[in-house]
Amino acid sequence: MHKENQIYIFDMDGTLTPARLPMTKEFAAWFRAFAAGNAVYIVSGSDAAKIKSQLPEDIFNGVDGIYASMGNEFYKKGETIYRKDFEPEPRLIAVLEEYRKNSSYPGRFFSNYIERRCGMLNFSVLGRDCPYEEREKYKFWDDKYGERINMQRELKKNFPGLDISLGGHISLDIVPDGYGKEQVAEHLRAMHRRGKIIFAGDRTEKGGNDYTLAHRLRRLGNSKIVKVRNPQELIKKFSGRYDKTKKFACK
User: Fold this and answer.
1) What is the per-residue burial (b if ≥16 Cβ within 10 Å, else e) of 190-204?
2) CA dist., res. 89 & res. 135, Å (int)
3) Beta-sheet pairing, 65-68 with 38-43
4) pLDDT per position as a tens digit, 226-236
């Protein structure tokens, strides 16, 4: 039985795995031991198919729950518990197409730049079908010139009913209000009314796609937010300290 006075929820890309890459064998071994002794959930902006491609099957099916597509899909022990979707208006798609067409990025572009997921859109000027090294090139350029932040500001101004956040290193996550990761906080608290919820993510700052979940958990109370930059830092922050019942405890 899990000790449920602490419930853990982890972002995936940049937290449990390198961005859009599989979980490493070394990290998976550590995470299995952690999940065996604790109530553990995973949340991601990716859809279930992508999450499955990044996680070992036993971890996907073995944790207490998987929130996919910003929480618009929920899976428990491999079974679909709920899904909710929305239909983006044509004007939004047209604006995203213009962003792609008029981008000043000097590098190569790739396919799958507007990706429809359950309850959300993921938009990347670069294109999600890019190799990892091209992803890193775009991230370096975007950190300097702020293309994504500028698009985010314009979209928030022109589409007030949508929530737009920086997704990972190359994209924007676009959801209707109420369809973002903040909904996970409400759902998780309804299942665990008394336990302390500990959330770890790499984009918990304002504008990042972990922020709304972190913010809502703080408002609900009895929670702790742990910002990490990569899986290695997560291990350092969550390892090496145990309580009297040999359960993992967050540093």
Assistant:
1) eebeebebbbbbbbb
2) 28
3) parallel
4) 999 999 999 99
